Amino acid sequence: MGNIALAIGRVAIPIVFIVSGVAKFLNVSGIANHPGLTNFMNAFGEITSRTTLGYIIATIEVVGGHFCFDRLQNPLGGDCVTPLHRLHHHLRT
Asked: pTM of the full predicted structure?
């Protein structure tokens, strides 16, 4: 049963990241006005514009999702699932 859950997680989590990243690309203003991004900008200062940071966040999600898909062939592929899931959960709250 655990192998089935791991297999589902290895496929489902990259899909969630890729879909979420593409959605962010389609609505960058939504992420640019997000309270979490406001808190980040307050903590670290005006590193770059909010729109640019929104594109960076979307790119990280899409590339991270593709990275997990690429790692499916590798026995260590599960290593990317847990940290990315935690990061995605942290960014969504």
From this structure: 0.68
